[in-house]
Write a structure and sequence with these properties.
It is a single chain. By secondary structure, the chain is an alpha/beta fold. Among the domains are: about 15-25 and about 35-55, no CATH class; about 55-200, Leucine-rich repeat, LRR (right-handed beta-alpha superhelix) (Alpha-Beta Horseshoe), CATH 3.80.10.10. The protein is about 15% helix and about 20% strand. It has a 19-stranded parallel sheet. β14, α6 and β15 form a beta-alpha-beta unit. Pfam families: LRR_8, LRR_RPS2. InterPro entries: At4g27190-like_LRR, Leu-rich_rpt, LRR_dom_sf, Plant_NBS-LRR. This is Disease resistance protein At4g27190-like leucine-rich repeats domain-containing protein. It comes from Populus trichocarpa.
């Protein structure tokens, strides 16, 4: 397939066809309700029986084996062997199966498998797929280096793996997974020879920077994931923007650029970014919090840390289009307008701003003068679902009132420990000077509102805000706040419907000072408040 998207479409077509004729059956994952397919035990037994009749398969998955099957079971006709999810501890030198047609070998999830003798792979020259993931091996046998037909080598989650022999001869390799192999001491030799590689996922193997000269040789690469997690070193491995930009077929990218210049150099590569369908890119000195946070962000996310971009008007022009997630940590921007072009950020779903002490508002007043009219219709923040703001010392206002009609998809607002915060949704000077003040808005999807340690907060919004989906509200240590402009959904009797959960502090302030839009709201909500 020319692209991974085409490959996925073809794969799903096959799965749908098999499900339609009842060879597979639809199911849902227990963890997240995502759709999947499974094979009925009877169908699986039938498939295995067909393989056995032709002596082409050996399937002993989850059979509680403590050692490899006997030598006579390793017949010459074998094409596929699955020994996954067993208790095999070692493969001694007495094993050297002669299986010239064996193409797939699954030894994954043998958690106690620590040693594989070099002799084991000596006569398996037809092997194409080797899965040793989730095992405890410390060293990949040198004989794997001679498996010239290998197209997939999966070593992910081998946490004890310290050494991988040269990959120079594996020129047919398309997929290499070395992710979460925290003990690997150095980068495997010969990686620049893997010219057919489509998928590469790995950590830094103790390196500070991904070795130069390798990526430009991997011109067919479609997936490049360079992990952040490095247990032996706090510093993440970085990669040069120019080298990543040379990958013209890249569709998925996860990496860390050392600084602003590398990021700009990558974005300037043009064709190198047009092919991207998913990306998670960190730039600068990003803390552990943001490194972990980006995992839960949407599939197109950029994280910026400790960068000097204040006043650099060239920055936003080169920002990636279609961005869905933005993390800003300790950057000196005055507003988001210094970071990206808001007109092109209509797909932004999640924003997290942390310790950006020069930022006074999300949107600068100058942006209102240059934004195309009419302002509420230009789509800015129209896709936004979640917004987080933590410990920004100079932040006074968040969303401008004029953009409130765009926030129809907003589900969550969290503002914490911003000592100068005065308004959550505030009017600009331009709005204050006109008589066309807006008195009512609807935030139809807002479910969570958390305002914590905002000592100067005087207003959530000057207009009345109707929130029929609100379930969780926390207002703590915001003692200058006197009015809750939130309008609750009404029951048939005209009384406001209570939230599912309310947290408030201090108790006396909440009970005596705070007033609601609806006169009976405080009485109705009283039983649901936790102090």
């Amino acid at each position: 397939m020319r692209s991974r998207g085409d490959a996925f479409d073809e794969g799903h077509t096959m799965l749908n066809r098999l499900e339609y004729v009842c060879l597979l059956e639809g199911a849902k994952m227990e963890s997240d309700d995502s759709r999947c397919v499974k094979m009925h035990d009877l169908i699986r037994d039938m498939a295995i029986q067909i393989l056995l009749e032709n002596s082409q398969g050996m399937v002993k998955a989850g059979a509680q084996l403590k050692e490899l099957p006997d030598a006579e079971e390793w017949t010459e006709n074998l094409t596929r062997v699955s020994l996954m999810r067993n208790y095999i501890k070692e493969i001694p030198s007495s094993y050297s199966p002669r299986c010239p047609y064996l193409s797939t070998l699954l030894l994954c999830q043998n958690r106690w498998l620590r040693f594989i003798a070099d002799s084991f792979f000596k006569q398996l020259h037809g092997l194409k797929v080797l899965d040793l993931s989730w095992t405890d091996i410390e060293k990949l046998p040198d004989s794997v280096s001679d498996l010239a037909s290998l197209t997939a080598l999966l070593l992910n989650d081998c946490e004890s793996l310290r050494h991988v022999s040269s990959l120079k001869k594996l020129k047919a390799l398309k997929r290499l997974d070395l992710s979460r192999t925290g003990a690997l001491e150095k980068m495997p030799q010969g990686m620049e020879c893997l010219t057919n590689l489509r998928y590469l996922r790995m950590n830094g193997c103790g390196e500070k920077e991904f070795p130069s000269g390798i990526l430009p040789k991997l011109s067919h690469l479609q997936v490049f994931v360079l992990e952040e997690f490095m247990p032996q070193d706090d510093a993440p491995i970085t990669v040069k923007g120019k080298e990543v930009g040379s990958l013209r077929n890249l569709e998925t990218l996860e990496c860390h650029f050392e600084g602003f210049s590398d990021f700009v150099e990558y974005v300037r590569s043009g064709d190198g970014i047009l092919s991207l369908s998913t990306y998670k890119i960190l730039v600068g000195e990003v803390g552990r919090y943001s490194e972990q946070l980006i995992e839960d962000f949407p599939s197109k996310t950029v994280g910026l840390g400790n960068l000097s971009i204040n006043g650099d008007r060239d920055f936003q022009v080169k920002f990636l289009n279609g961005i869905q997630g933005l993390i800003c940590e300790s950057i000196d921007a005055r507003s988001l307008c210094d970071v990206l072009s808001l007109e092109n950020a209509t797909e932004l779903e999640r924003i997290s701003i942390r310790e950006c002490h020069n930022m006074e508002s999300l949107v600068s007043s100058s942006w209102f003068c240059s934004a195309p009219p009419p302002l509420p219709c230009n789509g800015t923040f129209s896709g936004l679902k979640e917004f987080f703001c933590y410990r920004c010392k100079s932040m006074k206002k968040l969303f401008p009132l004029v953009l409130l009609p765009n926030l129809v998809n907003l589900e969550r607002i969290e503002v914490n420990d911003c000592e100068k915060m005065e308004e959550i949704i505030g009017t600009t000077d331009e709005e204050s000077s006109t008589s066309n003040s807006i008195t009512e808005f609807i935030l139809p999807k807002l479910r969570t509102l958390r305002l914590v340690i905002l000592p100067e907060l005087k207003s959530i919004c000057s207009a009345k805000v109707i929130c029929n989906s609100l379930e969780d509200i926390s207002v703590m240590y915001c003692e200058k706040l006197k009015r809750m402009p939130i309008c609750l959904p009404l029951r048939e009797n005209g009384q406001p419907s209570p939230f599912l959960n309310i947290q408030a502090c201090p108790k006396e302030w909440w009970e005596t000072v705070v007033e609601w839009e609806h006169p009976n709201a405080k009485d109705v909500l009283h039983p649901f408040v936790n102090y």
